């Protein structure tokens, strides 16, 4: 039996239902978005345009310096140490009891100053014995010489034999040798006695004493009594790469005097000035460097033995070269460059090739011309084509540009809105 559902019938005259269409909501949202863009977009565009105009028109204060000509030195530098020209360990040359050390530890002494005294009495006794022995032998010699004179007179009268005369002459020569040996013994005893007074062999600064009075000293003691180091003049031994050796040797062989300056550990303070003395006779194969020695008068005692210094030697002087302040040199991926100030008060990046530097100036081998203005302060804020305002060094740049003041940029933005 087939069962059919009854069909729905609509009432006559009832309105028809329209199926749902969701796309009309999309249309409404699009119209709302377009209205919002129409209202707000012009204001945002004006602000962006104003910001661009402000950035493009911003003037950056900088300090500039003109490229000039002058002379600049070519220097070679190396690490070094102050080395005394002479250093002496004072030792006793005789054995005995140390009686006194009449010097001030760490003080300055001159050559010949008394440093130590050793008990001289044993050596005075030895001298007396040597002098007594020599006096005895001298008396024997004198007696033999008198007898020889008699024998010669008798031999002339043919009263003595020739053999007796020859024997007496040999005896005289024997006593003469004995007396000469005795004289050596006396001189040695006097020398040993003189060694009991130890004097400074050189002038300089004496170090701390190594032994106290009352102790027995020996000539074989390793430490000695004290150490004297010569301070005036004094030397500095420093090293240079072997590649620089031909330049130095050409100057030395030409008889030129190469000035050398000694600087402190931080390479800031100049301690002393001197000149190159000599070059070592071989290159260190392990480091590829050669040792050089410079001599310094050191009249003010600014250099101290074993002090670490930086040596800086002038090997050449370049005349009439282009110079610019070292502060103007910038370094980047493209190498060294400077910011050049053009006539319209804008800057341009200019690659340069630099040469030796001395003090606050550096030589320019290529890239700049005489009289051009280069930025020496404020370059960190610049870019190609930026507008600049020249200021004096030390002036407050933040006062010349509202952009560098806190809130300055914000004031310009609010004024433009």
Question: What does the model show?
Answer:
29% of the residues lie in helices and 34% in strands. By secondary structure, it is an alpha+beta fold. A hairpin with a 2-residue loop joins strand 16 (330-332) and strand 17 (335-341). Strands 1, 16, 17, 18, 21 and 22 form a six-stranded mixed beta sheet that branches. The protein has a six-stranded antiparallel β-barrel with strand order 2-11-14-13-12-15. Strands 3-10-8-5 form a four-stranded antiparallel beta sheet, with no helix packed on it. Among the domains are: 59-73 and 320-401, conserved putative lor/sdh protein from methanococcus maripaludis s2 fold, CATH 2.40.420.20; 120-195, Orthogonal Bundle (Helix Hairpins). Mean pLDDT is 84; it is low at 1-9, 14-18, 42-55 and 395-417. The longest helix has 36 residues, at 121-156. The two termini are 85 Å apart.
């Amino acid at each position: 039996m087939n069962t059919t559902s009854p069909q729905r019938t609509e009432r006559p005259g009832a309105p028809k239902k329209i199926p749902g269409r969701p796309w009309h909501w999309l249309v409404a949202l699009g119209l709302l978005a377009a209205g919002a863009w129409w209202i707000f977009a012009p204001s945002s565009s004006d602000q962006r345009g104003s910001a661009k105009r402000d950035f493009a028109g911003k003037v950056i204060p900088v300090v500039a310096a003109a490229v000039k000509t002058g002379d600049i030195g070519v220097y070679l530098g190396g690490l070094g140490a102050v080395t005394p020209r002479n250093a002496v360990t004072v030792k006793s040359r005789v054995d005995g009891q140390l009686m006194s050390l009449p010097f001030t530890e760490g003080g300055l002494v001159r050559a010949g100053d008394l440093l130590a005294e050793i008990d001289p009495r044993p050596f005075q006794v030895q001298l007396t014995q040597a002098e007594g022995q020599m006096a005895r032998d001298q008396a024997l010699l004198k007696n033999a010489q008198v007898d020889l004179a008699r024998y010669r007179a008798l031999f002339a009268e043919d009263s003595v034999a020739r053999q007796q005369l020859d024997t007496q002459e040999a005896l005289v020569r024997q006593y003469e040798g004995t007396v000469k040996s005795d004289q050596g013994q006396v001189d040695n005893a006097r020398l040993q006695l003189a060694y009991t007074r130890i004097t400074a062999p050189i002038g300089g600064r004496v170090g701390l004493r190594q032994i106290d009075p009352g102790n027995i000293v020996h000539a074989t003691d390793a430490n000695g009594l004290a150490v004297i180091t010569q301070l005036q003049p004094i030397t500095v031994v420093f090293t240079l790469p072997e590649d620089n050796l031909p330049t130095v040797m050409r100057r030395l062989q030409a008889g030129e005097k190469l000035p050398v300056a000694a600087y402190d550990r931080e390479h800031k303070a100049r301690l002393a000035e001197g000149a190159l003395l000599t070059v070592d006779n071989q290159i260190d194969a392990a480091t590829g460097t050669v040792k050089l020695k410079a001599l310094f008068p050191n009249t003010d005692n600014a250099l101290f033995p074993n002090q670490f210094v930086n040596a800086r030697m002038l090997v050449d002087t370049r005349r009439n070269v282009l110079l610019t302040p070292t502060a103007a040199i910038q370094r980047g991926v493209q190498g060294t460059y400077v910011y050049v100030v053009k006539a319209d008060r804008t800057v341009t990046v200019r690659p340069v090739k630099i040469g030796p530097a001395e003090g606050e100036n550096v030589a320019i081998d290529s890239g700049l011309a005489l009289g051009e203005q280069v930025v020496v302060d404020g370059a960190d804020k610049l870019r190609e084509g930026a507008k600049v305002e020249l200021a004096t060094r030390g002036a407050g740049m933040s006062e010349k540009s509202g952009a560098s003041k806190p809130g300055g940029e914000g004031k310009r933005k609010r004024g433009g809105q």
